Amino acid sequence: MNKGIVYLVGAGPGDVGLLTLKGLKAIQEADVIVYDRLANPRLLSFAKPGCEMIYCGKTPDHHTLKQEEINALLVDLAGKHKVVTRLKGGDPFVFGRGGEEGEALHEAGYPFEVVPGITSAIAVPAYAGIPVTHRHLTSTFTVITGHEDPTKDDSQINWQRLGEDPGTLIFLMGVGRLQGIVQQLMRYGKAPETPVALTRWGTRPEQATVTGSLDTIVDIVEKAGFTSPAIIIIGEVVKMRDTLAWFEQKPLFGQRILVTRAREQASALSEQIEALGGEAVEAPMIHVQKPKDEAPLLAAIEDLARYQWVIFTSTNGVRYFFENLLACGKDVRALANAKLCAIGTKTAQALLDKGLRVEVVPEVFRAEAIAEALQGRIASGDEVLIPRSSLGRQVLIDELEKMGATVHDVVTYETVEADLPEGGLTSLLEDRCISAVTFTSSSTVHNFMKLLGNRLDLLESLKLVSIGPITTSTLAKYDLKPDVEAEVYTIDGVVNALKTL
């Protein structure tokens, strides 16, 4: 029997950054991932190519799979795959039924490991500005299931003890039982004026909190239309929210932003969005790959000594150029005779990381600015190598040839359409409450519009962000105008533009 291992991984409460390093490793190594509705879908982007994804989400009124079916599924998958990762919201062993899944695997003879996650019981209050303990208020907190009917006679919850407990009480999954919970607590001694908070979708853009007291909170929740998933926090620590609420103050809080860059580059933009309180949804419109015909690039590398200038127009160009340089048995010394030009500080930094300083970086990061910056530097008869994308613009070649240079424009990588599933973009826009879309190149615009098809209605509620004038002009071809264009044509510029929305 094939002895696959199953990782029962806590995905945390929603913020991707709260996943543990061990949890990330389990996702990256998985052959198949079984995930629920409380696991942030962006965590799936860390999986290796070809990893199978199986959704088994549950809502209070609908189960895609019953728990017994999930247990059986994990056992079945463990017999077919080397690594199975069960991705569960929060922590597997804090009302996560991970114990039952572990039992099923043990009985079937399959090894498993538990990877703890940050439970919503502490993370969600923290993101709402409510510490579960505070030296001047309470030294204890208790986590209680909110699923159980508070009025049943054979309750496993000791309501008398909770009513007398001076510490913080945290009920998970208890919105539907709120009235019974507060009634039981007041019945057993909790003062009606005891502070209460409910936070739903904590750590995510939809995070919202309402506060009140035991005798008012039910009406407040009903008027606010609060639904699951939300947690209930009861105790004096709720009063700290006015002082300690921090997450809602971040500049991109409440925004879910579509990142259309190639997956190989998306993380840099996604991480900045998330650091500012937004949530990045990665839907790569393009994919970067080796050129089908590498012969021209390899020939240029073999004859590098002939070039007086080498112009790099992107970090991808740097990456693929040096991969081929090393594959040819050469290193940076092969560029000893050439001066270097880079379009943008990130590209210049990528070269500096290789130990190479750049002579010219234009102030404006576009092809026309390169030509302007090289005026007076390039002599008639100079040979110039431009290792770049298959979609490189002709304008740079034309301007350099006007200076008398001989230009060798070599395809170093190809930009192709990403393989999103049919209907994947439209369903994403319909389901994920996207507030803005970032376009970082003309190719991201073209492929976005191709995948959007005739669903132009989905653009009505979206803010469009362009990295610069070339991308903006491409949007104009589709009769679209960005809500904001980056002042500096870089990812940092896009992030700064997002802050102004």
From TrEMBL:
Record keywords, A-Z? Methyltransferase, Porphyrin biosynthesis, S-adenosyl-L-methionine, Transferase
Tetrapyrrole biosynthesis uroporphyrinogen III synthase domain: from which residue to which, for each copy? 268-495
Q: Its Gene Ontology molecular function terms?
A: uroporphyrin-III C-methyltransferase activity
GO BP, sorted A to Z? methylation
Pfam families noted in UniProt: HEM4 (PF02602), TP_methylase (PF00590)
Q: Which InterPro entries match?
A: 4pyrrol_Mease, 4pyrrol_Methylase_sf, 4pyrrol_syn_uPrphyn_synt_sf, 4pyrrol_synth_uPrphyn_synth, 4pyrrole_Mease_sub1, 4pyrrole_Mease_sub2, CobA/CysG_C, Siro_Cobalamin_biosynth
Tetrapyrrole methylase domain mapped to chain residues: 6-217
**Listed EC numbers:** 2.1.1.107
What is its EC class? transferase
User: Where on the tree of life does the source sit, at the highest rank?
Assistant: Bacteria
Could you say which protein family the record assigns here?
Belongs to the precorrin methyltransferase family.
Q: What's the protein name?
A: uroporphyrinogen-III C-methyltransferase
